[in-house]
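Sample 1 of the test manifest.
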Amino acid sequence: MTQLIVYSAINPADILLDTQDFDTIAREVAAAGARIERWTAAQPLTPEATSEEILAAYRPEIDRLRTERGYAAADVIHLRPGNPNWPQLRQKFLSEHIHDEDEVRFFVAGSGAFYLHIGDKVYQVVGTDGDLLSVPKGTKHWFDGGPRANFTVIRLFTEETGWVAHFTGDAISGTVPTYEAA
Ligand SMILES: [Fe+2]
């Protein structure tokens, strides 16, 4: 279920907003300078769909966003429960960081939570099947796929080398609840 929880960055026990209403989420996320959209597949996809079939099903939306934002490439990442690399990757993604380009993820299936640290607030945006989330370049953020990460996402890039994490060293991510639903 798509969800937005807004925490006070000063006192994360203070929850300022908690909603699953998509229009409210889209409005709040846009006001924070980020983006969430809901995409529909051009043709039905089975759980066994290949990366090529997935990209083809969302080609109109991908091309629209590429034209609008200048993204050069798109690929597909599958992460399944039990992946031996996940515990280490999870810890890395849980540290607050920024990128020199937008971090754009479309959830084909499964779910994950982006945490955007903007001003004196932290926006926890849980994306699920059909959700496009974009974290603008330079935005302090972290990501959690949960203890048993299970998602298929499309990534859009300006250039693959741009998606390098610059860690802020801020311990704030340790003060906000992790994403446990997956
Ligand atoms: Fe990131």
